[in-house]
């Protein structure tokens, strides 16, 4: 990972579901220290993206898989990257049949609804799914 202007921190977590609360706690601590106003939204979205990374990427399927989280605050805009090993079978996409009452399949729908911007791209090392929250 390259250093980002305004980088608050970057963490590495095992590619397992038990990492979701660990990543959430890590980001919460960074945002509490920075006094960011949209911490609750950021924590929800980080939880969803880390869970997706573990469930749908090679980070969660291969022994020793890792998920990385990078948090930056640039001119009042919070930018968070969730980086995993990627997967040729799964690409991030919004499900057309997402139901608000559903227990699963709402991760990217929530990101799309809450974030001011989001996207993804593949890298030689894997996949980056990112979102931004503009300060209020």
TrEMBL record:
Gene3D superfamilies the UniProt entry points to: Histidine kinase-like ATPase, C-terminal domain
Pfam families recorded: HATPase_c_2 (PF13581)
Signal peptide residue numbers: none
InterPro entries documented for this protein: Anti-sigma-factor_SerPK, HATPase_C_sf, HATPase_dom
Domain Histidine kinase/HSP90-like ATPase: 13-132
Gene Ontology MF, one: protein serine/threonine kinase activity
Keywords annotated in UniProt: Kinase, Serine/threonine-protein kinase, Transferase
Protein name: Anti-sigma regulatory factor (Ser/Thr protein kinase)
Organism: Planomonospora venezuelensis
């Amino acid at each position: 990972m390259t250093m980002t202007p305004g980088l608050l921190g970057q963490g590495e977590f095992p590619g397992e579901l038990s990492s979701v609360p660990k990543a959430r706690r890590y980001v919460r601590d960074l945002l509490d220290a920075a006094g960011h106003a949209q911490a609750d939204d950021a924590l929800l979205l980080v939880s969803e993206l880390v869970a997706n990374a573990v469930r749908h990427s090679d980070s969660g399927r291969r022994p020793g898989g890792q998920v990385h989280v990078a948090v930056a605050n640039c001119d009042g805009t919070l930018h968070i990257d969730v980086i995993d090993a990627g997967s040729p079978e799964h690409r991030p996409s919004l499900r057309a049949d997402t139901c608000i009452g559903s227990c699963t399949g709402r991760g990217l729908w929530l990101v799309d609804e809450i974030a001011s911007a989001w996207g993804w791209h593949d890298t030689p090392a894997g996949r980056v799914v990112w979102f931004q929250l503009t300060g209020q």
